[in-house]
Amino acid sequence: MDALQGKVVIVTGASSGIGRAMARCMAQQGAAVVAGARRRDELEALVVEITAAGGRAVALAGDVREEAYAEALVQLALARFGGLDAAVNNAGSLGALGPLPALGLDDWQATLQTNLTSAFLGAKHQIPALLARGGGSLLFTSSFVGHTVGMPGMAAYAASKAGMIGLATSLAAELGPQGIRVNALLPGGTDTGAGREFADTPEKLAFVQGLHALRRIAEPMEIARAAAFLASDAASFVTGTAMRVDGGVSICRT
Ligand code: NAP
User: Fold this and answer.
1) Which of 10, 12, 18, 109 to mutate to test the pocket of ligand 1 (most atoms within 8 A of CB)?
2) Is 38 in contact with 27 (CB distance < 8 Å)?
3) With 80 as the cut, is the pLDDT of residue 1 above it?
């Protein structure tokens, strides 16, 4: 498959889970990938894997809460691959969970910064590079949590992920005239570090699986394939969506 041949893509949160699968999937489809996250060794292993398979990738370790890092990822895409065609602002974490009155302001701010402010900072620096290319695709990994499903104890996470949908919707209207498509991607439960942190016992995992119409959670590559589609020209008329790739968790009541 070569749906992303000639495209340059930034993927944050590429050191594990969904982001790692996105980077691998997009490289397999021909994209040159700029991979970001904090864990340097995991990123380097990813670059080695992609390169060994005949793909193109480069990594830069850093923290998505820092504006200089958002800028550096874009500069790296320009310097190494000559431009930017798509970006997936995917890095995120569950943050502190529990009843809201027990949540400290610092917990709240940490979750918002990691999930939502990082998306703003990423977009802020990615947009000019996409415009210079004459258009492109911006993606934000959101969640069903806070959009179609309310989950107790997840207020900060839900607010951050719902905020990403608002960000994507607004940017889709703002940037559509200039040829930039903007979408939020909403995975269902997915078998990653974060997924296992949430469902950390066999009982909890069975409960989470049962929430999905498909009665299972996703493999990261199942989410990555949807991101690759949204990044590609195959999605040329898809913008402003909150695309659910969620195994039916949003519509299931039994
Ligand atoms: P994961 O394996 O824990 O991946 C999270 C990624 O984000 C890691 O690569 C992590 O890298 C990176 N990251 C976190 N904080 C960062 C920071 N401050 N700076 C830079 N990178 C940071 O979990 P995942 O499930 O793949 O999560 C990916 C995205 O999918 C998240 O936005 C999550 O909210 C969303 N999501 C997941 C599920 C699910 O069930 N798994 C469902 C819906 C949505 P480092 O630790 O190396 O920095």
Assistant:
1) 18
2) no
3) no
Under 8 Å CB-to-CB from 66, ≥6 apart: which residues?
121
Beta strands in 79-231 (DSSP E): 86-89, 136-141, 180-187
CATH class of the 8-188+221-245 domain in this structure: alpha beta
Binding site membership of 175 for ligand 1 (Cβ less than 6 Å): no
119 has a pLDDT exceeding 90 = yes
Amino acid 218 reads A
- Residues noted as catalytic: 157
Amino acid 196: pLDDT? 86
Is 225 a pocket residue for ligand 1 (Cβ < 6 Å)?
no
Per-residue pLDDT tens for 79-95?
999 999 999 999 999 99
43 contacts: CB under 8 Å, gap ≥ 6: 14, 15, 35, 36, 37, 59, 60, 61
Ligand 1 binding pocket includes 39 (Cβ within 6 Å): yes
Instruction: Return the structure tokens found at 6.
Output: 């000639």
Q: What share of the chain is helix, strand, coil (3-state, %, to 5)?
A: 50, 15, 35
Per residue in 150-191, pLDDT (tens digit) is: 999 999 999 999 999 999 999 999 999 999 999 999 999 999
Question: Helix, strand, or coil here: 158?
Answer: helix
Question: Domain residues of the chain, as ranges?
Answer: 8-188+221-245
